[in-house]
Design a protein that fits this description.
There is one protein chain. By secondary structure, the chain is an alpha+beta fold. The strands form 4 sheets. Strands 1, 2, 8, 9, 10, 11, 16 and 17 form an 8-stranded mixed β-sheet that branches. Helices cover 28% and strands 26% of the residues. α2 crosses α8.
Length: 374
């Protein structure tokens, strides 16, 4: 018979989203257990580019734009607290970021998009259109094909691996329990309590948070929830170390604190295939050298593919079950950017605070709008 453990809150999923939530909960004295399936799952954190990114998000939904801006604005405080609790520097740099264009037409379209968002949510959404000459003042190594860029002072980047390590270290030091190698088999709700059967044990909890990425698709219906998420593959290249030249992160190329260059800009609908392809990697490398020609002769040391978690409209889902009160679903594809919100307002909501006003539209109901026949 499997051993049984009790906890106030059970978080299913030990990636960046799950650990951000768990860290936010345990900071306020909650008894929290995290179940992490292990490194053999489709872990989205493997493909994370490490960007804290505001640009372009929320073009079709002002609520998402506001939510993203709030998170970016809270990242400095979030990172400082996390480092204080864990002793791990997450290498946050938030001095702005650039999205570069190869044509003035493309740059103009992106400028119009940014202006639409700014007019909708206000001056907190700041940006600047830079000419090619102005881009080169910031990044002298940029290539001659670059026609200009959008600069956003809210954008930045962190080390995704250091961030996950910091979250785990802080969570454990604050008294949280992390159980690895635990695949959830079933979750039952009875008498206001959740019983979760996993690989090696069962867990009783007053609240359950589903933060299992693509695994939420199968788990959510057990608790009266819906997680219509699909995998989108991204391929990533990492080069050898270089002398620092890329002070500002860009959407597709960034330089880490160790000096390596991380490159990635693919979005592929290939189901659950997390492999790599020579054709796509060649395209990624070619685009990177157009942005920065000095990369042409740099050695690539690693390449991999990973599956991002995407909803039909790209926005998050934050929802408490109506039929199983105390069961929450949290899923999004911007786990790094929204980490400050997950460890802050979302964690507060799960432990009993009012639901944040800014997330009222982020339920799965939006994907089940009834249509009328005429």
């Amino acid at each position: 018979m499997k051993p049984q453990f009790s906890t106030d809150v059970l978080v299913v999923g030990g990636g960046v989203i799950g650990m951000s939530l768990a860290y936010g909960l345990v900071r306020h004295g909650q008894n929290v257990t995290v179940l992490d399936q292990g490194d053999d799952v489709f872990r989205a954190a493997r493909g994370n580019f490490g960007l804290v990114w505001v640009q372009g998000k929320g073009l079709q939904d002002p609520a998402y734009a506001r939510w993203t801006v709030e998170s970016a604005a809270g990242w400095q405080s979030f990172a400082s607290g996390l480092t204080a609790h864990s002793g791990v520097d997450v290498e946050l740099s938030q001095i702005g970021g650039l999205r570069m264009s190869f044509s003035n037409e493309e740059l103009s379209r992106r400028t119009l998009d940014m202006e639409r968002i700014r007019l909708t949510i206000g001056d907190t959404y700041s940006y600047e259109r830079l000419s090619a000459a102005e881009v080169r003042e910031l990044l002298p190594e940029v290539g001659p094909e670059v026609a200009g860029a959008i600069f956003s002072p809210l954008d930045g980047h962190v080390s995704p691996l250091r961030l996950l390590r910091a979250l785990v270290e802080a969570f454990i030091k604050l008294g949280g329990t992390l159980r690895t190698g635990e695949s959830v088999e079933r979750i039952d709700y009875r008498g206001g309590e959740f019983r979760t059967d996993a690989t090696s044990a069962s867990y009783l909890a007053g609240r359950v948070v589903l933060a299992a990425g693509l695994g939420n698709r199968a788990l959510a219906p057990q608790l009266g929830l819906s997680a219509p998420v699909e995998p989108v593959r991204g391929q990533v290249l990492v080069t050898e170390r270089m002398q620092p030249f890329l002070r500002y992160p860009t959407l597709h190329v960034r330089q880490t604190g160790e000096g390596v260059i991380q490159i990635g800009d693919s979005k592929e609908d290939v189901g659950f295939d997390e492999g790599t392809t020579v054709q796509e990697l060649a395209t990624i490398a070619s685009n990177a050298t157009r942005y920065f020609p000095l990369l042409a002769n740099v050695n690539v040391v690693r390449a991999w593919g990973a599956l991002r978690v995407m909803t039909p409209d790209g926005n998050p889902i934050y929802e408490e079950s109506r039929s199983c009160p105390g069961a929450y679903l949290v899923t999004c594809h911007s786990g790094i950017t929204l980490a400050a919100q997950h460890g802050g307002q979302i964690a507060d909501w799960i432990r009993g605070a009012p639901k944040p006003l800014g997330i009222n539209t982020f339920t799965a109901d939006r994907f089940h709008v009834p249509t009328s026949d005429h």
